[in-house]
Design goal:
globular; Peptide/nickel transport system permease protein; MetI-like fold; about 325 residues; mainly alpha
Length: about 325
């Protein structure tokens, strides 16, 4: 099977997954008690006004019909409108996406810059002091919740030492202020991912370095550095790529709390605000957006295997 046939097959497999996710999201949102029309108009609203708004939003239709209307609109790029501001949800996503994307990519880059070299060195220097220290650091990174770490960073570096901004997204003030405002949230969001990736890189490297072809390369007299660089690292990265793809979805989910803690105007903070206001179209649209990104990342991860190892065939 060639690349394009495999890609088409993966997209076809993603269709029922996407439909299933849409059904779950829509059902869970509508299980939340309360009337959206009542929540928007307030307690002083008349029954006639509430009924008119329910008619406008198709809330009087059966649930399955509401879902079909919403889903077919989504397929056309229409995620609905905010119940409070009447702003299209697609515009809200477009305006908030750069902040979330910048934060997520920064956290990913930070975590990989830490995890890859430390994991490789830890595997090479197995059972040495360097290995033990890196494993303890990884265990701490996994154990500490990112929102708690973010609060500690704000108190220590933002309030007490005043080295970095305690919150906000200051790229409108210039590149340097923007980068400074990004350090604390990116590190707090990426710490857990760095720890997971570090352990995965170490385990994968140790497994690969016990393979016969590594021993054969050493027996041929190749330098240890060349064996590690040309043979071990590339093959060890195949399972690591899987973890990176799966954990990228975790980064997006973690961005919800991180953006809220650091007052960043991203998709995550908008989701929390929409939940507080019971703005169902925004909640549905943002969660579906996160799910779509997650499915897309998994497809990209599958496609990357053959690039890392040409022996792997698309099937």
């Amino acid at each position: 099977m060639n690349f394009w046939a495999y890609l088409a097959k993966r997209f076809l497999h993603a269709i029922p997954v996407y439909i299933g996710i849409s059904i779950v999201i829509f059902s869970l949102i509508h299980l939340i008690p309360g009337d959206p029309a009542q929540a928007v108009l307030g307690d002083a609203a008349t029954p006639e006004a509430i009924q008119a708004l329910r008619e406008q939003w198709n809330l009087n239709e059966p649930l399955w019909e509401q879902f079909l209307i919403w889903f077919f609109n989504v397929l056309q790029g229409d995620f609905g409108r905010s119940l409070h501001t009447n702003q299209p949800v697609s515009e809200i996503i477009a305006s908030r996406l750069p902040v979330t994307l910048t934060l997520t990519v920064s956290a990913l880059v930070f975590s990989l810059l830490i995890a890859l070299p430390v994991g490789i060195i830890s595997a090479i220097k197995r059972n040495t002091l360097t290995d033990h220290v890196s494993r303890v650091i990884a265990l701490l990174g996994i154990s500490i919740p990112n929102f708690w770490l973010g609060l500690v960073f704000i108190i220590v570096f933002g309030v007490y030492l005043r080295w970095l901004p305690p919150g906000g997204f200051h790229f409108n003030k210039g590149f340097v202020p923007g980068v400074m405002s990004l350090i604390l949230p990116a590190v707090s969001l990426g710490a857990f991912f760095a720890a997971i990736s570090m352990r995965m890189v170490r385990s994968s490297m140790l497994e690969v370095m016990r393979k016969e072809y590594i021993e054969t390369a050493r027996a041929k007299g190749l330098a240890e550095r060349w064996v590690i660089r040309s043979h071990a690292i590339k093959n060890a990265f195949i399972p690591v790529i899987t973890v990176i793809g799966l954990q990228t979805g975790t980064l997006l989910a973690g961005a919800v709390l991180t953006e809220t803690i650091f007052f960043m105007p991203g998709i995550g903070r908008e989701l929390i605000t929409a939940m507080a206001k019971r703005d169902f179209p925004i909640i549905q649209g943002l969660i579906l957006f996160f799910a779509t990104v997650y499915v897309g990342i998994n497809i990209l991860v599958d496609l990357s295997y053959a690039f890392l190892n040409p022996k792997i065939e698309y099937s």
